[in-house]
Amino acid sequence: MSQTGQNDAFVEFERVQKSYDGETLVVKDLNLTLPKGEFLTMLGPSGSGKTTCLMMLAGFETATYGDIRLDGVSINHIPPHKRGIGMVFQNYALFPHMTIAENLSFPLEVRKMGKSEREAKVKRALDMVEMGAFGGRRPAQLSGGQQQRVALARALVFEPELVLMDEPLGALDKQLREKMQFEITRLAHDLGITTVYVTHDQTEALTMSDRVAVFNDGRIQQLAPPDELYETPSNSFVAQFIGENNTLEGTVKEMSGETCLVELANGAVIDAKPINVSGIGDKTRVSIRPERVEFNKDRLQEGAHLLKAEVKEFIYMGDMFRTRLSVAGNDDFIIKSRNAPDQTRLKPGEMIEIGWLPDDCRALDAH
Amino acid sequence: MTDVQMPAGDQAQQDGPMLAADGTTLKRSLARSLRRRKIQALMLIAPLLLFVLLTFVAPIFDMLYRSVENSIVSNTMPRSTTLLKDWDSATGELPGEDVYEAAFYDLFLAKERKDHTKLGTRLNYERTGLSSMFRQSGRGMDKIADAYLDPLKDLDKDWDEAEPWLDLMGDADWVAIAKDARAEEAPNFVPNAEIVTLLPNTVEAYAEFQTFLKEEDPRKRLGREEPWGLVHIALFNDLEQTDVSAYSGPGADRLAEASQLVQSGTVDIPTFAMGFADAHDGWVNIEIWRTIQTYSPKATTGYFLNAVDMKLTPDGAEFRPEKERVYGLLFSRTIYMSLVITFSCILLAYPVAYLLSNLPLRQANLLMILVLLPFWTSLLVRTSAWKVMLQQQGVINEVLVWMGLIADDNRLALINNQLGTIIAMTHILLPFMILPMFSVMSTIPPSYVRAAKSLGANNWTAFWRVYFPQSVPGIGAGSILVFIMAIGYYITPAIVGGNTGTFISNRIAYHISSSLNWGLGAALGAILLAAVLLLYWAYDRIVGIDNVKLGG
Ligand SMILES: Nc1ncnc2c1ncn2[C@@H]1O[C@H](COP(=O)(O)OP(=O)(O)OP(=O)(O)O)[C@@H](O)[C@H]1O
Ligand SMILES: [Mg+2]
């Protein structure tokens, strides 16, 4: 791979479409630009086309339309083995008939590397994932986490500049997952590798990535860094999909620049920030994060609109209190409050008034 | 524990063992319930187990037994084979008169039971000509006996009649019943007490004759059958030694006359050896006696030696002359051709199995039906179809001639030779290679090859280094299956093999159904079985039998 590519566009998808059966598009008009060294996660529900995108990038599927470029070069007609992309498969795909060392040495052998150099690289790669002592074993003799690390080492041993991982941690338990998440990000950053990572676990996506591409229905719904994705979702799918979220449905009543007024079904009016609404009379779905809802009037702005709510349930969670309310016909309205000495513990049946900063309440599209 | 006043301490002591006893009952009841389950399970598989035992295990053991069993010789000629043990054939001298005498008794009885031809057939496997010799000797035995009967007959015709013998030998009461009774109704022979002391040998021979009569045909009237020559000979021997003048029972005059004749020494009786020489000149051939001696033991390695082109001789095992050797060639040809067939099956089946496991479901199903299609037609039909295809005027030759690829007078010989057998059997055994291969290949996830490619391997390297090694267990399973089936195949080589393309099993079939040399057939079968087990063992050592997978 040459070093001539521009730093800001190492991988490019341009208007890529994919159909398996000639009738439905699995990937619809995908545009994506990935700078060198970035850790990008594709996140989305099952069947949203994440694996398909990865496979097109790796060369195992061809794009029905559009262009995929790597380092400025279109790779549509380059066979997979010449793309030089490291890949970690969901089931690891470690070759069962080879030892761990042979597995790692395989990509170097097909590159006709000398024996001593090969051995040195295999050793270094194994040490990197702390698996140095396991070179002589077969994959079946390793635990899931160890296999995962070997798969990672194998994808990295031939020093690719781009590594693709398709749900590599799917089969691991929670603790091991978290450890591996950390190790993968550390390695990726230390080695300066560009990574495309697929998962449908949003926590994983948020904690590991530089940017997250939220997929749904063959399209990228939003492409943004994790904090932006969480705090400023650009449509109601993203708002729902990432983190916990309260929604209320209503109609835009007034627009005034940065804020608008939304009238709910029961006639109550709330403040919101217009994101995805075009004008007065639009149907909208407003989205508020549970931790941004306030029921202590002292902390609210002067003149903020308040909503009546009935406490349905109070759940003690240790560090947090989680309270379920009934608000404007929505019985699943959740608020979260920190467990502090002065925090009020609400009781079921209690009637309260809630509010929020207009910036925290986003008026999004209605579907 | 009926004693209410039992002290507390005793009670406790009683409780200890009670508890333990309780424990054992628990264990026992658990064991019983488990046993019941085991029995239930056993009952479920019992029909199959029985079936397998009866139809599979038992015949194999029967075959192994037959391949060494040789009791017919010593059973048919018990006396002479016992004596022959002490005969030293190396001296170059024929056996002594005692052996001939014993052989006479053996053969005479065998002739009466019609067993002498069976023995002849058995010994004919070892030495041709023995079959007809034994057949012809049956009459010779009668001739030997006639030398004794004729002078007696000249004295009194009654010596060759049934009823006078009955009167002479039997107890009066028994005779009264026996004369009219059928054999099954008459009580067992009861000899005349006086005669027993006078003529013990005669009575013994006569008793044997009576027993034989009863066994042979229960509906025969005892009074109708004149006794065997054996009885006459025994009478001669008895009369030589005994004085019968004191006897006054039935037939006393005849007996006295005969006694006089015998003791006068005027009767000229030839030796048994001379009688045998008259019956067939084989009996004075030392080689034939050697053969009989060699095959006297109840178990023999002779069949096995035959099966490997050797021969059991008095001097031990030795190879047959070059032109008589057939089985070594047949065995090596069978193994060689089975290997060729297995290899061609691997070559043809691998791509098909690969396609089967990698095509989309619908096409794969269609292909699978095509693979299984041959199973819907009878084996005989398929083989015969190959005959139509391959013969000189057959489809393939016609097409080649029509296309001008070969000359009309130079048609390919595709059938009635090894090539024909290989072609037809490869086709017939192909599914047995495809199916295990397919079931192994279909468990190899496509991600392995993808991983190999993503690691930089081109299509061929990815296949050869990653896919192929994982499909080897399927090749192993298919090869074992096909090879073992091929090595014992019978119908196809028989139909398309001609002379050069037949297998050892065709020879086994010949011995079982035509030459009726079951012993040799069994020995050949046992060797075939051993060869298969040996190959299986070798495969296990080299490849490892746990590397064989039929699926999963
Ligand atoms: N080989 C194929 N042939 C036909 N359709 C396919 C094929 N592979 C995937 N699809 C379809 O394409 C769509 C997207 O599949 P894809 O595997 O990309 O989803 P995904 O986002 O990876 O889902 P998951 O999170 O479950 O892995 C799905 O509707 C799937 O049914
Ligand atoms: Mg997927």
- Series of H and E elements of chain B: HHHHHHHHHHHHHHHEEHHHHHHHHHH
Helix content of chain A: 10-25%
Q: How many runs of DSSP E, i.e. beta strands of chain A?
A: 19
Query: Helix count of chain A?
Result: 8
Give start-end ranges of low-pLDDT stretches of chain B. 1-20
- Helices and strands of chain A, in order, run as EEEHEEEHHHEHEHEEHHEEEEEEEEE
Description:
The complex is a heterodimer of chains A (367) and B (552). Chain A has helices at residues 50-58, 100-109, 115-128, 144-156, 174-191, 202-208, 226-231, 236-241; strands at residues 11-18, 27-34, 39-43, 65-70, 73-74, 85-88, 162-166, 194-199, 211-216, 219-224, 246-256, 259-264, 269-274, 283-288, 307-316, 320-327, 330-338, 351-354, 361-364. Chain A has 367 residues and is α+β, with helices and mostly antiparallel strands. In chain A, helix 2 (100-109) packs parallel to helix 4 (144-156). The relative contact order of chain A is 0.11. Chain B is built from 25 helices and 2 strands. The A-B interface holds A 58-60, 79-87, 89-91, 93, 95-97, 106-107, 110-111, 154-155, 158 and B 445, 447-448, 450-459, 461-462, 465-466, 469-470. Magnesium ion binds at residues 50-51, 166 of chain A.
Short note summarizing the structure:
The complex is a heterodimer of chains A (367) and B (552). Chain A is an alpha+beta fold and 367 residues long. Chain A contains eight helices and 19 strands.
Keywords:
heterodimer; A: 367 residues; six-stranded mixed sheet; five-stranded mixed β-barrel; 8 helices; elongated; B: 552 residues; disordered N terminus; binds magnesium ion
Summarize the SSE layout with pairings.
The complex is a heterodimer of chains A (367) and B (552).
Chain A: E1 11-18, E2 27-34, E3 39-43, H1 50-58, E4 65-70, E5 73-74, E6 85-88, H2 100-109, H3 115-128, H4 144-156, E7 162-166, H5 174-191, E8 194-199, H6 202-208, E9 211-216, E10 219-224, H7 226-231, H8 236-241, E11 246-256, E12 259-264, E13 269-274, E14 283-288, E15 307-316, E16 320-327, E17 330-338, E18 351-354, E19 361-364
Parallel strand pairs in A: 3-8, 3-9, 6-7, 7-8, 13-19
Antiparallel strand pairs in A: 1-2, 1-4, 4-5, 9-10, 11-12, 11-14, 12-13, 14-19, 15-16, 15-18, 16-17
Helix pairs in contact in A: 2-3, 2-4
Chain B: H1 8-66, H2 71-76, H3 78-84, H4 97-113, H5 116-124, H6 130-155, H7 162-169, H8 172-178, H9 193-198, H10 200-216, H11 229-241, H12 252-264, H13 272-279, H14 286-294, H15 302-307, E1 310-313, E2 316-319, H16 327-358, H17 361-372, H18 379-390, H19 395-402, H20 418-441, H21 447-454, H22 459-487, H23 491-496, H24 504-513, H25 518-542
Antiparallel strand pairs in B: 1-2
Helix pairs in contact in B: 1-25, 3-4, 4-6, 5-6, 6-11, 6-13, 10-11, 11-12, 16-17, 16-20, 16-22, 18-20, 20-22, 21-22, 24-25
Bound molecules: adenosine-5'-triphosphate and magnesium ion.
